[in-house]
Amino acid sequence: MATIGMNDLKTGLTILYNQSIWRVLEFQHVKPGKGAAFVRSKLKNLRTNAVNEVTFRPGDKFETANIDQTEMQYLYADGDQHVFMDNATYEQISIPADKIADSLKFLLENMNVKLTTYNGEILDVELPKTVELTVKETQPGIKGATANGGGKPATMETGLVIIVPDFINEGDKLVVNTDNGGSYTSRA
C-alpha cells in the first residue's frame, strides 16, 4: 500500500481513512486568497455505503487500499445465504443476505456480477448498469396510455417495486436501471 497526500487524490481511488475503506467520488482543489490550499472531497464508505464530504489539508496522508474485483455468477439462494461462483476457478462462496441487501432486489439466477473485496472482506456486489426483470404484479394496462403519464407501481419478479408507465402489464419484460435504486428504462 502506498502512502499519498491530498494532491494525489483522483476520482475512483480507494483509500484507507478513519479506520475504514473509502472510494473518492469527487474532489476539488481549492486555493483561497488567504491561507493554505485544501481539497474538498466526497467519499463513499465501502463498508456502510455512507457518503461523506471531507476536507483534506496539506500534510494529510493516507494509504491507498488495494481492492480486488472478481467476475462471479449468482447461482442461488440457500436460506439466508446467497451462493456465487467464480467464473475463472469455479470456486463457490456463500454471502449472507444482510451483506448484499441492496443488490438482492436486482439479482437473478445465472447473472454475472463483479464482487469487490478487500483482504478477503466482501465489500460490494457490482451489478450491470441495467437488468431485465419480468413484471410479477401491477394494475392492468390502460389502452392508449403513453410513457409520459403519471405511472403506476409494479412489483418485479425479484420483489423490487418501481414506477412504470400505465401501458405496462403483468408478464412484460422490462429493462431496469440499477444505478439509482431501480427505475424503469424501457420494455425489453
From TrEMBL:
GO-annotated biological processes: peptide biosynthetic process
Annotated Gene3D superfamilies: 2.30.30.30, Nucleic acid-binding proteins
InterPro entries: Elong-fact-P_C, NA-bd_OB-fold, Rib_uL2_dom2, Transl_elong_fac_P/YeiP, Transl_elong_KOW-like, Transl_elong_P/YeiP_cen, Transl_elong_P/YeiP_CS, Transl_elongation_fac_P
Tree of life domain: Bacteria
SMART domains the record matches: EFP, Elong-fact-P_C
Pathway: Protein biosynthesis; polypeptide chain elongation
Subcellular location per the Swiss-Prot or TrEMBL entry: Cytoplasm
Pfam families named in the record: EFP, EFP_N, Elong-fact-P_C
GO molecular function, one term: translation elongation factor activity
One term under GO cellular component: cytosol
Domain Translation elongation factor P/YeiP central per the UniProt entry, residue ranges: 69-123
NCBIfam families from the UniProt entry: efp, PRK00529.1
Descriptive protein name: Elongation factor P
Species this chain originates from: Weissella jogaejeotgali
